[in-house]
Amino acid sequence: MPPPVQVIVVGAGNRGENYSDYAKIFPDRMQVVGVADPREFVRKKLQARHKIPDQNTFKDWRCVVEREKFADAVLICTPDRLHKDPAVALAKKGYHILLEKPMAVTEQDCTEIVEAIIQNGVIFAVGHVLRYDPVIHKIKLLIDSGAVGDVIHIQHLEPVGFYHFAHSFVRGNWRNEAESSFALLAKSCHDLDLIHHWAGGRRCIKVSSFGSLSHFTKENKPKEAANRCLDCPVEGDCAYSAKKIYLDRVKKGAVGWPVSVICSNSLPDIESVTEALRTGPYGRCVYDCDNDVCSNQVVNMEFEGGLTAAFTMVAFTKEICNRKTTIYGSKGELTCDGHEITVFDFLSNKTTKHTSDGTVPGNFAKGGHGCADFHLIDSFISAVTNGDPTMIRSGPMETLVSHKLVFQAERARLENRVVFCENPCDGESR
Ligand SMILES: NC(=O)c1ccc[n+]([C@@H]2O[C@H](COP(=O)([O-])OP(=O)(O)OC[C@H]3O[C@@H](n4cnc5c(N)ncnc54)[C@H](O)[C@@H]3O)[C@@H](O)[C@H]2O)c1
């Protein structure tokens, strides 16, 4: 039996903590031996959970770089703008890397990461969790088995969810492009990656995109509204009220996401959540925040061979992130509602249904994309254990190509034109 893969968690917030839990379920496969995070609360929490020695706890990722290499791999789960520097530096130290998505916030930084990975021969996975979702993976297997013939058109919808959008993209970490990244990169790099994957890795030739920030703007603030929901006389009429999204939940004992991430220095309870709403970013009026990222965006793509794809991301939905996909092929039509896949065969007129086993152990079973998170970290640990990067579905080169597609689509939106993607490696446009 090979020894457990020893990992250092760089960024012990929501994602770092999620992935680390794998070590609690399979201590013979993975061991958390170090943590770096400036937030004492989360650092100490992870240290206690994994019994990490004091000398292996750090306030900054740079301290890990300064130390002699003392583990096999790092899980880089820092904020979007803090991906490139640790990824490049830690690749140079010889650490295998699981890097959260997006790889980085510019094309050049993404390319630099991939160069560092290749030059240093380390194993690399990006947090494109949907690639590891069993139902979504099944779509690819069905396409590859010829179930719909040649893929002609892909239609894919990402419903972000009305309160999820308010939480993450109006009040929260991904609300402002200068602080994190544009919405298509932060939220939909998963989706363009899937479309590229379902298109069989074919080159995207041209792309157009439209989108904007709707509704969550100062002009839409009701006259009577206060700056904070706790003080607001019209909060009762607002679907996005922070009292409804957080306080009502914690009062019912629901302390999972999104409540779990709004108290930066304590566990969530009625007092700490009330304090967070009184003083922190999550208590602000959604019409009075410093948000600027798109709430709705469409992307149209044409791939080699004439395959077309249409993608929609929209904030104003009941469903949260439960993607809807239809793939139109020469022999049949495949639809997926996020849980079940239906394939209609044109020749036999028969419909077949497909599901996949979404059972996963431990905290990963609690919902969200825990199932996909589990399979991602499981694949990464297997790849490192066996020295076999082919066990990873979101490796450096294809992730770079699909990230470039995201940058090209955003360029098309900003410049209000069709971008021609001449070369998948350069991402040139004219
Ligand atoms: N794969 C997915 O579907 C998915 C979902 C959500 C978030 N993400 C991505 O994961 C990353 C982390 O998101 P999160 O929700 O865990 O955020 P988070 O804020 O909960 O965690 C980030 C952590 O990084 C720490 N950090 C900041 N500076 C640091 C430094 N210099 N050294 C070490 N740690 C530092 C922060 O203190 C924080 O605890 C982001 O890039 C985000 O976009 C991916």
Residue share in helices?
A: 25-40%
- In the CATH hierarchy, what is the class of the largest domain? Alpha Beta
How would you sum up the global shape? globular
What is the averaged pLDDT score? 95
List each distinct ligand once. nicotinamide-adenine-dinucleotide
Largest sheet entry: 9 strands, mixed
Strand order of the largest sheet: 14-13-12-11-7-10-9-8-15
Terminal CA distance reads 54 Å
Portion in strands: 15-25%
**Order of helices and strands, N to C?**
EHEHEHEHEHEHEHHHEHHEEEEEEHHE
Structural class: alpha/beta
Radius of gyration: 22 Å
Features:
binds nicotinamide-adenine-dinucleotide; single chain; six-stranded parallel beta sheet; 430 residues; NAD(P)-bd_dom_sf; nine-stranded mixed beta sheet; 19% strand; Dihydrodipicolinate Reductase, domain 2; nucleotide binding
In short:
With 430 residues, the chain is of the alpha/beta class. The protein folds into 3 domains: 5-122, NAD(P)-binding Rossmann-like Domain (Rossmann fold, 3-Layer(aba) Sandwich); 130-216 and 292-420, Dihydrodipicolinate Reductase, domain 2 (2-Layer Sandwich), CATH 3.30.360; 218-283, no CATH class.
